[in-house]
Structure formats: C-alpha cells, structure tokens
Design a protein that fits this description.
TIM Barrel, 4-stranded antiparallel beta sheet, 9 helices, 268 residues, Alpha-Beta Plaits, 2 domains
C-alpha cells in the first residue's frame, strides 16, 4: 500500500472550505492505524493502491488529509471542496462513502458524520418550505406537528386505507404518512389512494375546521415519481414523500427540482 501514509498529516489545519468527515475504522490484520487512516483519505480522494507516474504537485495539493486519529479508531478527514462537483450529491457520496467501504486495508469502517462547508451547502437549494413553511401550510404555530402511519402498513384496500386516514385526522393528527413500502400494489393503487384519501382529508378538514395533509409515498422509478408528484398536486395535496434510501440522492434531487415547480413539500 505505497503512499497511503502521505495522506495522514496530523499538523494539518482544515480550512473553512474543507468538508470534514468523521469515520470510525478498524484496520485489517497487519495494517497499522496510520496506514488504514491514510488509505481512507487516499482512496476517497486522489490516492490509489500503487505508485503513480502521473501524480503531479497540483494533484497532490488537493488530496484529502487525515488530520486526527485517536485510540478508539476515530479519524477525521478533511476534503478540499474542489474535489467535489457543485450540486452533485451522488458524486460527493461516491467519494466519502464509495469504494472505501470495500478496501482491504480496513476490516470495518463507519461514516459517523460530516461538517459541510458553506461552499458546498450553497450549491444545493435546500428545503423549499422548511419548518416555518410547513407550519404555514398547516396553520399550526403553538404546538408540535403530529403524524401517524395507518397500520397494517400494507395490505389494506384503498377504501380501508382512506377510512383509516380519516380516523387518524379526526383523532387530532395533522398528517397521515404512507409507509415506505406502500407504493401502488394491486390491492391499493397509488392514484386510487390519492383520490380517495383526498376525499377523506377534505371531509376531516370540514368537520374539524383544521388543516390536514397527507405524506403520500411517490417512491418509484424516477420518471414515475415525477408523474406521481404531478398527480398529487392536481388533487390538491401539499406534500409528497419518498424513500431516499432506495430512490437515492439523484432521485431526491430530481424530485426536489420538480416539487419546486409544483409547490409541494417533501418528506424524505
């Protein structure tokens, strides 16, 4: 593993433009902590497992650096923001949570957290509504916003699901939320669920005098998610939800852009 220890610099002081990532690692048998830490920093930036004839000073200057190691296996790595494409979350995750999770130099590795510099944060639009915007939608300002998931989470017919949602709203909850694995199964089709649930939502609003909304799961193939978001908007709901763990960051970014145009809030 030549060169990996060159990615460890315990005297390095991160700049305000560095992305700081915290890892916990357990080195593989026969690998020192310093070498394993350097392998994490190297493989997630400009390093590799062998010596390179193409390495230049301007490339070495932008490498990630492990600047802190403790005895519990906690390491901190600083990544110059120039390593990342602005507004491209999948690329960032490919770096800090990609092939380093399959390296031979480490037996175990966990990404514990990250401190995002303003230069990277500002390349993303962020939430369209945020907490204040959601409170404005629901007209709830002086208490927690409440939500519940109809149970059993899958298996109910459309009519059963919509009626259960109605009872949840009538019980005082602000939001009904789909479970992540309820999408458009044969017993509860997405479009039918939207139509019937919106009828029940409107009924609950009329009877309680309170605003109600529905976190409707649109998780699917990306183009289908966009079509479902439009359908939700057309039937007067304010919210969609998606499973980011399965749809991924690219899917979330695409849905975020579409929902900006549709004026929909996202639960992800």
């Amino acid at each position: 593993m030549p060169g990996y220890e060159g990615f460890v610099d315990l005297r390095y002081k991160p700049s305000e433009d560095d992305l700081i990532v915290d890892f916990t690692i357990e080195p593989a048998k026969g690998v020192s902590m310093k070498l394993a830490a350097g392998a994490v920093a190297g493989e997630s930036s400009v390093g590799t497992w062998t010596e390179l004839t193409t390495m230049r000073k301007h490339i070495d200057a932008i490498k990630a650096r492990c600047f802190e190691i403790n005895k519990a296996g906690k390491i901190r790595v600083a990544y110059p923001s120039v390593l990342f494409e602005a507004g491209n979350m999948p690329q960032i995750w490919s770096s800090i949570a990609g092939n380093i999770f399959g390296m031979k130099a480490v037996k175990n590795i966990r990404l514990e957290g990250a401190e995002w510099p303003k230069t990277i944060r500002d390349s993303f639009p962020g939430p369209k509504f945020g907490i204040k915007g959601v409170r404005d939608i629901l007209k709830v300002y002086d208490r927690p916003i409440t939500a519940s998931v109809p149970k059993p989470k899958i298996g109910m017919t459309t009519a059963e699901h919509a009626h259960t949602a109605y009872e949840i709203w009538m019980g005082g909850f602000d939001l009904v939320k789909d479970d992540e694995n309820l999408s458009s199964q044969s017993f509860n089709r997405f479009k039918d669920r939207v139509i019937e649930s919106m009828k029940m939502r409107d009924k609950a609003e009329q009877e309680t005098g309170e605003r109600k909304s529905y976190l409707i799961n649109i998780t699917a193939e990306t183009r289908e998610m966009l079509a479902r978001a439009k359908f939700v908007r057309d039937f007067g709901n304010e919210y969609v939800m998606m499973d980011i763990l399965t749809a991924g960051w690219a899917g979330l970014q695409t849905v975020r852009d579409e929902c900006d145009d549709l004026n929909l809030a996202i639960h992800a």
